[in-house]
Amino acid sequence: MFTIVTVFFFSINLMLSTELGKKLTIEEKFELYMLPFQEDQTTPTDYNAMKENKLIKSYRNVTIYYTPPEKELLPVIEGVLDKADSLTTRLFGHVNDNNIDLILHASSEDLYDRTSLIETMGYFDDPNDIVGVAISDLDEIVSDQMPGSFYFQSTIMHEYTHYRLQAFIKEQGLFVYRIPLWFHEGVAEFVGMYDVAHRYYPFQETSFENLVTHDDWEKKRLEDYDVYLQSYYAIDYLVNQYGETMIKTIIEETAKVNDFDKGFTNATGISVKDLETNYLKEAKQSIEEK
User: Which residues of the chain form CATH 1.10.390?
Assistant: First the structure.
């Protein structure tokens, strides 16, 4: 245990000595040092165990892990990865890709058992460059029937966008979570729902100030707040008002000042608080018109 902790602190010190580390706040540096001492740590996910006895197919920068019955999904996955690559390249420009793994889970129950993630169909593990996706209904996906086909493809698009977005943020010299989680999730939902007719409807929203960190997000997600929908509507509003390039511009402006709220205002001319008012006003107006 002592050796592990020593290596951990050495790695943190090395990271903090870089340009990226210099941009972290004192609070963020403290949180990094305290990670080994948190009481509510979950058991590390055993990705090697998930990959055991699975077949492997490489496509682009992605290694797909699947079982024989899931082989029919490979053409679907390849098509989705092509679309995700095209859309995220439009949004962020060229990004230097890492090799990532895509692990298929036989069901949402299997995904939960393996990861302890609650009420989710997919995940992206940034440090390990791993995407996981649950198969809701194999027959529906293969035959391109709703809703199974849509959920499966949308989830892959969503999680791949997380990977590409975080890679882009890092290339800007930013700490990944200098960008608040609502923005991460909103962009991922925007790509996952691309070209989908999405009618506005009333939902329980919260301030974006409450959706900054992963803990913030999980707390609200598991309450009566539709945080994914809220974040999607916010990004959709920004794209409708300023164009798709605004997503990239907000990140670039944030990198210049190392502060999301300031970067957001520099890019858009409005504050995040203004965004809360504006996108909700448009949502409610859309409801009244329909």
Answer: 174-290
Ranges assigned E (strand) in the chain: 55-59, 62-66, 100-105, 122-125, 130-134
The answer, as to whether pTM is greater than 0.85, is no
CA distances from 147 to 39, 84, 121, 247 (A): 39, 19, 13, 29
- Per-residue pLDDT of 32-70, as tens digits, reads 444 444 444 444 678 999 999 999 999 999 999 999 999
At the second CATH level, the architecture of 174-290 is Orthogonal Bundle (1.10)
Nearest to 68 by CA among 56, 55, 52, 50: 55
Nearest alpha carbon to residue 188 among 166, 170, 171, 209: 166
Task: Decide yes or no: CATH 3.90.1150.10 for domain 45-171.
Answer: no
